[in-house]
Amino acid sequence: MPVLVFDIETVPDVAGIRVLNDLPDELSDYEVAEFAFQQRRAANGTDFLPLHLQRVVTISCVLRDANQFRVFSLSEPDCGERDIIQRFFDGIERYTPQIVSWNGGGFDLPVLHYRGLKHGVSAPRYWDQGEGDYNDSRDFKWNSYIGRYHSRHLDLMDLLAMYQPRANAPLDELAKLMGFPGKLGMDGSVVWPAFQEGRIAEIRDYCETDVVNTYLVYLGFQRMRGQLDAVGYAAEVAVVRDALTRIGAKHWEEFLAAWPAA
Q1: Fewest Cβ atoms nearer than 10 Å: which of 49, 171, 202, 207?
Q2: Cross-strand bridge partners of residue 8
């Protein structure tokens, strides 16, 4: 089965915040977002916006199947939010992959659900729970993408913490403990300022490095659960190194420089 690891980056849905709060057009996007942040801070002490008000600007993916290891992004400015989300679900429709995330059940997928619903996105394979028209739909009754304890979507953070939020570990720290680069130069807290400055390429590059960190942690998990032996694990890690070396982009050069050979 192909493996599709994914990660998303979001910014405040300024247009939605304007509509829900009947804000005047004279306010800038920055002022509208600040209004929403202040509302959240007053309500619960954090400026983290509700998931339905998170606009998707990038989805980065690792696709690994029998023939390839590929890193790619669906991102602004190449396409808008609807196309980004639709193309992601089109990939699930085409490949029926094992999908893997870090906190995807707590953030990425609910965001994609709300935003996909807003935009009229179609995702029948993803939502199949055994009632679809596919040849293997009956299997989805027992193992779907959306069942919390099903495995077609593997939320590594949730599983490793035994579904206990107090046991969650940050991806950055776990990746570094395992000898991988972790985050480089950006984190989620600076995505909105970077977006306002037009640095969407940096956001995309950051998201891609996050998704490769997730894939490398997933390889370690596969070794721990016996799906890869030591030789197979080393071979898969080498595939990642070789692929990133061939791409030759600046963010991969920095990633490889921060990832010393074992």
Answers
A1: 202
A2: 59
